[in-house]
Amino acid sequence: MAVQHKNKTIAALLALLLGGFGVHRFYLKGGADRLGLLHLCSLPLTGILWGAVKPHPFYVLLPLLLSYIVGFVEGLIIGLTPDEAWDAQHNQGSGKRSRSNWVLALVLVLMLGVGAIVLIGTIARVFDLLYTGGSYG
User: 20 to 30 Å CA-CA from 2: which of 30, 33, 54, 59?
Assistant: First the structure.
């Protein structure tokens, strides 16, 4: 039985766009992936915080932001994996070989930029809220 070929560019793009929900992990490992389900748990946790606690709006979004940051890192790892190692891990029985192209490079550059902005912004906002009580915004 042939295994479905997993495209590295699609997996990296899913990590960029929907990495906070673990969609890239479900694409690679199926619906029973535990780390993917952990990503997915950030959404109900955000809803519980919003409905039950009513803290500062930033703290409500913090589980989702952290899940996206981890998704960006996982996406970078996916995209930077050599094609031979990628095929050995995800496409062993597919009969096809992966060949990365310039689209993957653009996705990685975009992911690095967006991930850095989200990470630096999250760190800055957490320190602002912790040390000044949010007096700068």
Answer: 33
**Tokens 């991930």 belong to residue:** 115
Distance from C-alpha of 57 to C-alpha of 47, rounded to nearest angstrom:
11
| SS3 sequence of 55-71 | CCHHHHHHHHHHHHHHH
CA angle 111, 113, 117 (to 5 degrees): 115
Q: Please give the Cα distance from 81 to 57 (Å, whole number).
A: 37
pLDDT tens per residue, range 13-67? 999 999 999 999 999 998 888 999 999 999 999 888 888 876 678 888 889 999 9
Angle of the 8-18 helix axis to the 102-132 helix axis, nearest 10:
20
